[in-house]
Automatic annotation (TrEMBL):
Signal peptide: 1-20
Any single Pfam family the record assigns to this protein: Beta-lactamase
InterPro entries named in the record: AmpC-like (IPR050491), Beta-lactam-related (IPR001466), Beta-lactam/transpept-like (IPR012338)
Lineage: Bacteria, Pseudomonadati, Bacteroidota, Flavobacteriia, Flavobacteriales
Gene3D superfamilies per UniProt: DD-peptidase/beta-lactamase superfamily
Organism field: Flavobacterium aquicola
Beta-lactamase-related domain: residues covered: 45-336
Protein name, per record: CubicO group peptidase (Beta-lactamase class C family)
Amino acid sequence: MKKTILTTVLLLLLGQIGFAQTNFDKIKLDNYFNALEANNKFMGSVAVSQNGEIIYTKSMGFADVEKNVKATKNSKYRIGSISKSFTTVLILKAAEDKKLDLSQTIDKWFPIIKNADKISVKQLLSHRSGIHNFTNDNDYLTWNTQPKTEKEMLEIIAKGGSDFEPDSKAEYSNSNFVLLTYILEKTYSKSYSDLLQQYIAKPLGLTNTYVFGKINTSKSECRSYNFAGTWKVVTETDFTIPLGAGAIISTPSDLTKFADDLFGGKLLKPESLEIMKTIKDGYGIGLFQMPFHEKMGYGHNGGIDGFSSVYSHFAEDKISYALITNGTKLNMNDISIAVLSAVYGKPYDIPVFTTYSLTSEEVDKYLGVYASAEIQFKITFTKDGNALIAQGTGQPAFSLEATEKDKFKFDQAGAKFEFNPTEKTMILFQGGGQIKFTKE
């Protein structure tokens, strides 16, 4: 579900590797996470399983900063787009039971949607429908905290129209999985929440996995945070908006069990699982490929309201891994590499963090609105005390970390910002490229 200009994809290093349980140095991995926690870089939980048994768990930071409630292995986090894996399983189970046909077009349910007579259920699953992604709209963050009815959501999705001819290519769209949620509810005459419990959570014993409501910290549900000098709570998306695209709450341990049982044949027939794993134009169905050295994992990542998550399963070694954060200043991909390196006995470093301090007055020279001739996008820089805050057009704000004179970084997205206050310019470095911005 996450909507941000500075996005990352989990693509891990290629090379040669073999798994050996004896190489898993859990103490070093503990020390890695302790370093992140001690430097206020990460809050969240991680779990690793092998052969269906948990072999490592760790929780860091707070479930509720304001009430000083520490996170535990039972702390529950919103998992964002990982929900799509669950929704996909429900759709494929319906197809197995002859309640749905994946080739059926969606005009039966949604005649209001453009090209509905050309779009199949399978094209919704594989992000090949062309239906515009409503979370990309600049006004999305102005209404996402308010409940929406099915009629209201359909009107929003229909208004977005089509971005390309159905099945001509693939492009990620949360709209697809909101529509799939409604198809499930109409097919079974039950709520998505009830279907999740009936067909996945209860049979697998996933007691901490369900459709979320308002965050209830008394039930071990975590709040989420962005760092802006201190951890600051993020507003909550109402569950009626993401639904099967991103409205599930869970734990890393539950996610590893889900992965173990999905790939272990306890949820779907082998042919249905193969459909999920079939990649076209970079997309599977409810799954992405997640390579680590010569190993190939399958899983999904997610993000919503300051929460970020990822799970993956490596069938050859029967290894599952899940990581969820409710507040991070780091790139989740880098953390995933560290965890999997530990599991597979590969070298990785425990980071050493240095700080470059600025006064509130020194931050003032970077403030303002910066625009670029290269892209139609502006970034506004404000401050919170001595912290520099960046916010792209229609995007949530995020805190930058000063690294040296006139230089800042945002590790979550692998982005660096270099200012020239005299010339009133800023260069954004990301993904091997750079874009020059000028202060208005």
